[in-house]
Amino acid sequence: MIFIVVKFTIRPEYSESWLDAVSEFTASTRAEPGNLFFEWSKSLEVPHQYVLVEGFASQEAGEQHVNSPHFKAAMSWMPDYIATKPEIINAEIPNEGWGEMGELTPSSP
């Protein structure tokens, strides 16, 4: 699996509308056959920062993603929205998706 985490720091004037701005990009990416997950979160510590966690089934699926029309379209307008160059972790890992955490189980009600 290709595991990617990207931190996007958004210009303050676009921070509240960021998720709306990336909604089409997000939906298109989630519809890709090799996409396992594509999830946005907002940082609790860094103002105006969103964290994207992505998973792709294979190197080929990751390459298809970055060569897709919706990826190229997003890269064309995102520079106007970001305040800093995004930070990224991109790694190939042996997992095939999410698993359960072994150390923690909900207590009985």
Automatic annotation (TrEMBL):
Alphabetically, the GO molecular function entries are: monooxygenase activity
- ABM domain segment(s): 2-90
Task: Give the EC number.
Answer: 1.-.-.-
What is the name of this protein? Answer: Quinol monooxygenase
Q: Does the keyword Oxidoreductase apply?
A: yes
Query: Which terms are listed as keywords in the entry?
Result: Monooxygenase, Oxidoreductase
Top-level class of the enzyme under EC nomenclature:
oxidoreductase
